[in-house]
């Protein structure tokens, strides 16, 4: 992951009232994805990704794009708000749109809304209404103007958080005075895999076959090594436009797999920004005709899995003497290893095998500059005596609200017994 220097100064997204002349994601952005033909479309190549469309001056596509790219701001004060929430699987993002009478700058200005929870696996059919509470807003890179994306969490009509609402519990932890005093920073490395639509096989791989072994694909360039770069770049720009604190991106070890980093973010902002970035990535891959997978081990065998490494520090870790604080945090994390593993993503046991830059799911370990450990500490942190730790256990499909708040809870609020602490320190060779 790229080095994290300082967090965003914005704990809550605020939307400018200025409006561009058109939606930032237009056909021009996709020019390198489009294969122009003379009213002729050939089958999708299995070896190289292309989005194909018929282009002509009077085509239906052009007329539709013209309407999609309409700038409505000169004609109305009304905006479109896309309400986004997490569905019943805990990883699926859902959304629907509504008109708001004027531009807004804060989620408190937005009305609550509702949806049919029986259709998302979150409520029974005879009592299906679930209430959406707006929590964070971002500029909409698809509609442009003053239009917004709204991250919401879900409640019963009586005001109780539903079981899949992990944000509510995270917000309670981050509002604890002990946690707030330590100003927790997060940098999250989101890995994902791009799949061909009809065969659900990685982008750039021959259908039913395999590319050459891993090695030349990581951070690579070239048509025979890098597959899906335009999607990664489009996502990068869309996140920057939206106000998401994205800090970098790169091609990953397995061909057809990519990573982007979000952070440094403070507290609950980390989860809001990851979920907004995932929604934008889903929309971009939808437009490109590619399937997004957050499976932690999309291809079995000698291929890297997909993780969501989480870099974490507190105020005390970042100050002089912080390395000792980091080691105390590692001790606490070792004692709650099973609790963390159970909350770090479905199917993670297929990824955490002790191979392909992972530690075994059953054994906690830590090390300096060791990517085969549960917790990695960077060389700069060791050298400077302060910095951050990297939790390498979370899977690509983890819930960022759960992971970030659990790290804060374990390292700042949870206290082990003296006996357990002493045994763990001896086992891990930690002097704290």
TrEMBL record:
PROSITE patterns: GLNA_1, GLNA_ATP, GS_BETA_GRASP, GS_CATALYTIC. The keyword Transit peptide applies. It is found in: Plastid, Chloroplast. Its EC number is 6.3.1.2. Residues 163-432 form the GS catalytic domain. One of its GO terms (biological process) is glutamine biosynthetic process. Pfam families: Gln-synt_C (PF00120). Gene3D superfamilies: Glutamine synthetase, N-terminal domain, Glutamine synthetase/guanido kinase, catalytic domain. It catalyses: L-glutamate + NH4(+) + ATP = L-glutamine + ADP + phosphate + H(+). GO terms for molecular function: ATP binding; glutamine synthetase activity. Belongs to the glutamine synthetase family. Homooctamer. This is Glutamine synthetase. It comes from Glycine soja.
């Amino acid at each position: 992951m790229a080095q994290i220097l300082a967090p965003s100064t914005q704990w809550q997204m605020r939307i400018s009232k200025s409006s561009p002349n058109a939606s930032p994601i237009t056909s021009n952005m996709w020019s390198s994805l489009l294969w122009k033909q003379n009213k002729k479309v050939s089958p999708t190549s299995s070896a190289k990704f292309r989005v194909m469309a018929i282009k002509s001056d009077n085509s239906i596509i052009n007329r539709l794009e013209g309407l999609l790219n309409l700038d409505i701001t000169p004609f109305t004060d009304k905006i479109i708000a896309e309400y986004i929430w997490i569905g019943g699987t805990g990883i699926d993002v859902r959304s629907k749109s509504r008109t708001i009478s004027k531009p807004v700058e804060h989620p408190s200005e937005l009305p609550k809304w509702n949806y049919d929870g029986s259709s998302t696996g979150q409520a029974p059919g005879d009592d299906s209404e679930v209430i959406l509470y707006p929590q964070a807003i971002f500029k909409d890179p698809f509609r442009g103007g003053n239009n917004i994306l709204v991250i919401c969490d879900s409640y019963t009509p009586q005001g109780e958080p539903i079981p899949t609402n992990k944000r509510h519990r995270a917000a309670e932890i981050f509002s604890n005075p002990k946690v707030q005093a330590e100003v927790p920073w997060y940098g999250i490395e989101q890995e994902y895999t791009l799949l061909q639509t009809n065969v659900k096989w990685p982008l750039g791989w021959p259908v039913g076959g395999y590319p050459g072994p891993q090695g030349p694909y990581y951070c690579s360039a070239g048509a025979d090594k890098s597959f899906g770069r335009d999607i990664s770049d489009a996502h990068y720009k869309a996140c920057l436009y939206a106000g998401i604190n994205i800090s970098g991106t790169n091609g990953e070890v397995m061909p057809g797999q990519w990573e982007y980093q979000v952070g440094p973010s403070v507290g609950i902002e980390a989860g809001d920004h990851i979920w907004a970035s995932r929604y934008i990535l889903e929309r971009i891959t939808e437009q490109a005709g590619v399937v997004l997978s957050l499976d932690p081990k999309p291809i079995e065998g000698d291929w890297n899995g997909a993780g969501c490494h989480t870099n974490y520090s507190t105020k005390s870790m970042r100050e002089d003497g912080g390395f000792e604080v980091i080691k105390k945090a590692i001790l606490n994390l070792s004692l709650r290893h099973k609790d963390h593993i159970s909350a770090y993503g479905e199917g993670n046991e297929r990824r955490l095998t002790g191979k392909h830059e992972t530690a075994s799911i059953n054994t906690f370990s830590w090390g300096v500059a060791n990517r085969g450990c549960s917790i990695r500490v960077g060389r700069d942190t060791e050298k400077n005596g302060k910095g951050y730790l990297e939790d390498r256990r979370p899977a690509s499909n983890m819930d960022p609200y759960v992971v970030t708040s659990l790290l804060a809870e374990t390292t700042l609020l949870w206290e082990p017994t003296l006996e357990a602490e002493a045994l763990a320190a001896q086992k891990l060779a930690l002097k704290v």
